[in-house]
Amino acid sequence: MCGRYATTADPASLAAELDARDETGDDESGPDYNVAPTTSVLIVVARHEHGASETLVTRRIRRMRWGLVPPFAREIGKGAPLFNARSESVATKPSFARSLRRRRCLVPMDGWYEWQVEPAPDGKTRKVPYFMSRSDGARIYMAGLWSAWHDPRTPGSPPLLSAAILTADAIARLSNVHHRMPLILPPDRWDAWLDPDSPGHPDLIVPSREQIDRIEMRQVSPKVNSVRNNGPDLLAPDDGCGEQMALL
After folding, report:
1. b or e along 40-77 (b: 16 or more beta carbons within 10 Å of the residue's beta carbon)?
2. Residue 248 pLDDT more than 50?
3. Can you give the pLDDT at residue 239?
4. Can you list the positions of beta strands (E) in 3-54?
5. Which of 93, 130, 132, 89 is nearest to 109 (CA)?
6. Does the pLDDT at position 83 exceed 80?
7. What's the rounded mean pLDDT across residues 41-47?
8. In 51-110, at which residue ranges do the beta strands (DSSP E only) sit?
9. What is the CATH number of domain 5-112+135-215?
10. pLDDT at residue 241 above 80?
11. Residue 225 per-residue DSSP state
12. Does 164 score more than 60 pLDDT?
């Protein structure tokens, strides 16, 4: 799964990196080292742009609520936020099926956190946090879905934009920390995944072993357990574990 992540991206840098239009209107956008569900996050979409002689598909950078709100929802806040969508069943789940057909997105991040259940000194168990990121420090783009929700109680109000991150069964070394993982989308799949004219294809959401092999893992401070803590120190190796963890 993916329930927390870190990002240092800002709309301007993403727009330049992806040849996209910044539609956030952000004056300032600082790094967030402990992104949690229901937070407003940066999302990459592709939408139609109607010109004088032709219609183009252009990438856009938008802010959305992390935790998808289905179009048929009557109100927000009932039940747990839908911040993850299982790739194996996303096409048949009413909450996600419509978004899968026409509203797919990318979720940029520096890396994500997972918690491994380990024995504790008192004989019980504890959850130990690990941070997963590219070994070369490059940004990671996760496959996601988005939705536009209109509050039925206030007709004519602006829609709430929201998104979810796709997950899959963990493979290779990642499975030693958690049995699920967010779905990293390689660049050669971006255009097909974002294309609003395409219904999407199952082969686009198959985990890429090449992308997984580029991920390194390190144990980090339990301070990340609290969303009140937010700073680059959350990414540092935990005391007593200074070297990168070798998960075989």
Report:
1. bbbbbbbeeeeeeeeeeeebbbbbbbbbbbbeebeeee
2. no
3. 59
4. 5-7, 21-22, 32-35, 40-50
5. 132
6. yes
7. 96
8. 55-66, 84-86, 104-109
9. 3.90.1680.10
10. no
11. G
12. yes
Which of 2, 182, 200, 195 shows the shortest CA–CA distance to 97? 200
| φ, ψ of residue 64 in degrees (nearest 5) | -140, 155
Q: Which helix (H) or strand (E) holds 119?
A: strand 111-119
Q: Where are the domains of the chain?
A: 5-112+135-215
Given a contact cutoff of 8 angstroms between Cβ atoms, the answer to whether 84 and 183 are in contact is: no
State the Cα torsion 107-248-136-204 to the nearest 10°: -40
Taking Cα atoms as reference points, which of 111, 106, 129, 88 lies closest to residue 214? Answer: 111
Q: 180 pairs with which residues across the strands?
A: 169
| Residues in a beta bridge with 107 | 142
Q: Rounded mean pLDDT of 207-214?
A: 94
Q: Which amino acid is at 158?
A: P
Whether 53 has a pLDDT exceeding 70, the answer reads no
Averaged confidence pLDDT in the chain: 90
Six-digit token string for 63 = 């802010």
Mean pLDDT of 102-125: 92
What DSSP designation does 237 have? Answer: B
**Contact by Cβ (8 Å): 10, 32:** no
Quote the pTM value: 0.92
Per-residue tokens: 38: 């229901």
User: What's the rounded Cα separation, in Å, for the pair 147 and 72?
Assistant: 10
